[in-house]
Amino acid sequence: MEKIQQAVERARQQRASLGGQVDAPARPSRPSANTAGASGGLAAALQQARVFEPSTQHLRENRILAGATDDVRSDVFRKLRTQAMLRLQTLGGRSLMVVSARDGEGKTLVACNLAFGIAHQTAAPTFLLDMDFRRPSVHRTFGLEPEVSLTDVIEGRATVEEVLVRIADSQLYVLPQARKSEHASEIVASQAARTLIQNLANGVPSAKLVIDCPPLLLTDEPLVVQGYVDGCLLVVEQGRTSRDDVERSAEYLDEAKYLGSVLNRVVESEGSTYYGYR
Ligand SMILES: Nc1ncnc2c1ncn2[C@@H]1O[C@H](COP(=O)(O)OP(=O)(O)O)[C@@H](O)[C@H]1O
Ligand SMILES: [Mg+2]
Q1: Which ligand is closest to the CA of 240, given by its number?
Q2: pLDDT given at position 67
Q3: What 3-state DSSP class applies to 127?
Q4: Which of 157, 196, 230, 247 has its CA 20 to 30 A from that of 258?
């Protein structure tokens, strides 16, 4: 508890100090992390992105249903996508993060389905960033085996075009994370991370950005990421996330950016699990 409080306080301080730099010109600590920021750079990076075609079976097994038209659960994701996008639009925003109180509550699943759903709806690129550097799993969800990770770009070891993977037949661009990082907090709080997110969100007209985050009550990264994005979705797992955790999570979230909560594993008839949005 005390550890969390200290982490939150640290994050708040980081957020406050970062907050003062919002309007400063983008100036990354390492130039390569900013490749996408150069004029025309992001458009060129998109052209060069590796294309990956996940198997339909793998997507199904991992409950990525946003693209499926023959599964009743995909309707729920379409609804979630539409509602979340409408709220983001009301805020005039392009980027959102997906969080929950703890691990295993469905953040990654929601982030992947939401990003895929948005990408199917719009002709503009949708970026999906795996920023759970402690337990990255977006790559496994799609069946990717990336050689280059998002932290390589942020830390200046690789360029944006080297990490981008476009999911075939869609405008979904994944920025995967293949390995755990020991320095998740510092990497997320770096100026290079902030600049990269700003450049992705603003480098192409109408682009959208979805960030998969680590747990809100166990790490300080989500509070820092919240300073970078326009909206925030809270995932709550039915029968698992306690009321206390939800209340504490809500305290950490910026009300002005709150897009709503996704109720995961709502048990419907026939034992199927569905999502709800409120
Ligand atoms: N509604 C659901 N129905 C069935 N399995 C689910 C559901 N939501 C999540 N899972 C599974 O639970 C595990 C944890 O979900 P995940 O999205 O990785 O959580 P988090 O990112 O919050 O740690 C994964 O194996 C995922 O496939
Ligand atoms: Mg996850």
Answers
A1: 1
A2: 67
A3: strand
A4: 196
**What atom of ligand 1 comes closest to residue 103's alpha carbon?**
23
Asked if 200 contacts 127 with a C-beta cutoff of 8 angstroms, the reply is: yes
Strand order in the sheet with 165-167: 50-52, 165-167, 172-175, 126-130, 208-212, 95-100, 231-237, 258-267, 273-277
Say if residue 3's pLDDT is above 90: no
Structural domain boundaries in the chain: 2-277
Mutate which of 77, 108, 109 for ligand 1 pocket (most atoms within 8 A of beta carbon): 109
273 lines ligand 1 (CB under 6 A): yes
Tokens standing for residue 224: 């820092």
At 4, is the pLDDT very low, low, confident or very high (cuts 50, 70, 90)? very low
Q: Which CATH number fits domain 2-277: 3.40.50.150, 3.40.50.300, 1.10.287.40, 3.40.190.10?
A: 3.40.50.300
